[in-house]
Predict the structure.
Amino acid sequence: MPAKYVQQFICNWLVALGLAALLGACSSSFPPAPALAGSSSYVYRIGPGDMINIVVWRNPDLSMTVPVRPDGKIAGPLIEDIPAIGKDPTALARDIERALSKYLRDPVVNVVVTSFGGPYSEQIRVVGEAAKPQALAYKQKMTLLDVMIAVGGITEFADGNRATILRTAQGNQRYSVRLRDLLKRGDVSANVEMRPGDVLIIPQSWF
C-alpha cells in the first residue's frame, strides 16, 4: 500500500478514535438515572381527554359518562363547566356534589376514570430516535423498559447509550440511561423507574 494511503488510513483512524472519545465523554456528562424514582403516594390526576363516569346515587338520570374537554372542564345535567383537570377522582366527586346540592338534598356522587391520559405535565414523553415517539400516560412503578416497549424500541440510527432522561419534577435535571444495553444486551441493571413528567431523549448516532 502506498505511503500516502497508509498515512490517510492512520489519520482517519485517529479521527474516529477522537470522535469515539468525545461521544464517551458526552455519555458520561450526566449522572446515571437512579434505579428507584417512584413514590408510593402517587395519586392519579385527571387530564384533558379522559373519560369520566359520574354516578349519582338514586339519580340515574343525572349519572353519565363524559369526556374532559380540552379546556379541562366537564359539563352535564344540572352541572356545567366544572374544572376537572389536575384533580383526583375523589376531589372531583366532592365538587360535583357541591354543584348538585343546589338542586338535590345530600347528593352522593362517585367518579370513575375509564380512559386515562392524565395532565400533560405528568405524561412521559419520548422524543428522538424511538420507533414511535409519543407521549404516554404515567403509571405507578413504570420503568424505562415499559416505556420502550410502548414506543416499539429504538431505531437503527439511535445511539441508545447516550440517551438521557429530563426530569421535570427535579427542575429539569438530566440523567443518562443505557438503552442499547437494556434492549440489545438484556442488561436489566440498565432498567430504571420513571417519574411523572419525564422526557426521554434518544439521540441519533454520529456514525
Observations:
- The mean pLDDT is 88.
- Residues 3-27 form the longest helix (25 residues).
- Residues 51-115 form a domain with the wza like fold fold (CATH 3.30.1950.10).
- The radius of gyration is 25 Å.
